[in-house]
Each structure stands twice: as structure tokens, then as C-alpha cells.
Amino acid sequence: MNTVAIAPPATKRTKAFAIVGAVVAALVIAQVVGSPSFPSNWYAHLADPINSWQGWLRANRTTHWSFTFFINPLTDLVDFFLTLIEDFLTWLPWFIPPIVVFLVIARRKRWVATVYLIPIVLLFGIGKVPAAIATVIYALPPMIRLTALGIQQVPRSAVEASRMFGATRRQTLTRVEMPLAIPSIVTGINQTVMMALGIVVIATLVGAGGLGQEINQTVRALSPGKGLVVSLAVVAVAFVLDRVSLALVNSPGAKNTSLSRRQL
Question: Tell me: the pLDDT tens digits for 136-190?
């Protein structure tokens, strides 16, 4: 008797992604077809409205009711508490705040992303090389941890069977443990890519360039509209890389490998 596989119904999230993809594809096709030649620059009309709104906020900061009755009093309240904290820290001896900070860091066992840049800048200076090294140091631990976890979760029976057939440690690692750990390894790649994109803006502080540099320039120029456009570009890159890496995890080969591991 033949069996027919029925595909699961599409979820609302999948339909939303399909609609967004169709709209983006339609806009790209309209740009390409409507132009006699390939466009040299695609301009996103998002910066000008946001910059205009920012100008309106500056002009009405002292007259509009939303500022006079809500935003400005809230700003004064926050500034009052910040002044109290600043006075308290000024009153404390100079060595107490660093000790507290180091104790908190040691307790949490985590470092702020910008801390990775300090020794790199001292050793390699400023430029793309220290930014790349800092990115690798920051983004590589998930890959190492998930790879080690995947190898540790390989069934002991599979390892013993390979040794019974005369496989060396290297052959067991490359032909048994690594293939069975592929889902964890690909998940580690996904997390590494996401963390590398998370430090892309911070790495521009030491001369990395790229989209992070564009974001820093918009912050310095007080141009939130352009900053939003560049940030959307970073989000788009992260989204594409995330979907591609997750597709590798959910590929038939990875699923078959995971199934065989459970059967072992």
C-alpha cells in the first residue's frame, strides 16, 4: 500500500515571510524593468521623513504639550537621579568602584563586547586587522561549545563499534563523531554568524569600516533617518544569514543524520 506524505500547513509566520518576500521581489523587478539600464543607486526614501520629524521635534521641544507636560518633566526627573548617583560616586574613594565592577564581572563570568578591543588595539593598532581579530575572539566561543557538545552527545555504542572495526581515533572523529554532530555544528555556525554581526558596529571604533562605520557616521551627524536605513541593511544581512544557516540545520541530510544518531 502506497503512502502519501502530506505537507504540514503553512503557519502565519511563514505566510508573513512569503508576503514580505513577494513585496520586496516586486519592488526590485519594478526598479529593474522600469529602467533602461541597471540602476547605479537605489535610494530608500526613509531618511528624509525621519529627518523632517526630527526637525519638528527640535522646533517644538519647548512649546508642544507632549514636551512641557510629559517628556521634559521626565527628563528632569532622570537628570535628578543621575546627579545624585554622580555625587555619590564622586564622594566614594577612587578604588571602590573598580573593585565592585571587577567583582560583578567575575561573578557573571561575562565580558562586555568592547572589552575585547582593548588588548587588540594595544597589540595591533587601529584598522581592519584588529577588528577582525576581535570579531573572531568574540564570536568563536559558541562554535567551540556547540561542537564539543555535539561530539559529547554522540552515542557511546557508535564510538565503540568504530573501534571494534579497527578505526583509529582520527578516523573515529572524522567519520563517526563529526558526521553525527553535524546539527550541533551547524547551529554553532549560526550563532557565530549572529554574534559576529552583533559586534560589527562596535568593531568600527577601531577602524573596521563597512555598515558599522555608516551607522557611526549617522550617529555623529545626528541623522536618524539614514541610521535607520543602514540599520535595516544590517538586519537584512543577519536575517538572510540566519535563514540560510537554519536551512542547513533543517536540511534532509542533517535530519537523516540526527535520525540515525537516535537509532544508534
Answer: 888 888 888 888 888 888 888 888 888 888 888 888 888 888 888 888 888 888 8
R_g over Cα of the chain: 26
The last residue of one of the domains, among 110, 138, 169, is 110
Which residues constitute the domain of residue 85? 65-110
Distance CA 51, CA 221 (A): 11
78 in the same domain as 200: no
Q: Does residue 34 form part of some domain?
A: no
In a shared domain, residues 77 and 151: no
Q: What Å distances lie between residue 183 and 39, 142, 177, CA to CA? A: 41, 14, 12
What's the CA gap between 186 and 26, in Å, rounded?
A: 32
CA distance 202 to 18: 33
Amino acid of residue 115: V
Q: What CATH number should be reported for the domain holding residue 203?
A: 1.10.3720.10
pTM, rounded to two decimals = 0.53
Cα separation, 72 vs 133, whole angstroms: 44
